[in-house]
Amino acid sequence: xxxLVVEDEKRIADFLARGLEGAGYAVDVASNxxxxxxxxxxxxxxxxxxxxxxxxxxxxxxxxxxxxxRKVGPPVLILSARGTVDDRVRGLELGADDYLVKPFAxxxxxxxxxxxxxxxxxxxxxxxxxxxxxxxxxxKVNRAGEPIELAxxxxxxxxxxxxxxxxxLSRTMIVxxxxxxxxxxxxxIVDVYIRHxxxxxxxxxxxxxxxxxxxxxxxIDAPDxxxxxxxxxxxxxxxx
Length: 240
Ligand code: CA
What we know:
Number of helices: 9
Strand order of the largest sheet: 2-1-3-4-5
Order of helices and strands: EHEHEHEHEHEEEEHEHHEEH
Radius of gyration: 19 Å
Shape: elongated
Bound molecules: calcium ion
Number of strands: 12
Largest sheet: 5 strands, parallel
Structural class: alpha/beta
Distance between the termini: 18 Å
């Protein structure tokens, strides 16, 4: 999951980025409206956290309007020092999905972020591939009833793969989804993390779930999952 934080106050932007990265999300930061719109144009964000008062010509509400003019835009959480009822109503009327007044506690922000992600995505909060389960809300991973500790990036990769069960994902797709734009290293980093993931979730089990897809990248699936998946897709009654 990749978020955009639009915030001109560096202290708050850093605080948000650090906290959200610690929770396993990739975070880009834009410090004014123009940059924010450039980023939104170039990247498919899962969520935008938007400050209202921004320096320069475009303020947060204008950024919000531009996002809402697009057919499919990410959910937007407005963050503002202006907490009057009028301000809130205006933000929500312009299409914000939620509104949080500064100062705020990080845990509250995180709770609202997770609520928005759940709302925007009817996907289940619990993902499952064979006997491997991932709880998106509690950020817990379990295989055959045994809890598995993952680092934030490992969790991010696994969640992305499990949301796309049975679909081959390229290294570039994985990097773009899990790392922010400050990362300009090689996509080989994905191989390193997949090795870590395999040692944690696959090595001790006879059934291997993470599969290498030659010439593309990686995929997660139950070894016998492919045919079942196809049948469900064909019957258009696919339930995730
Ligand atoms: Ca501001």
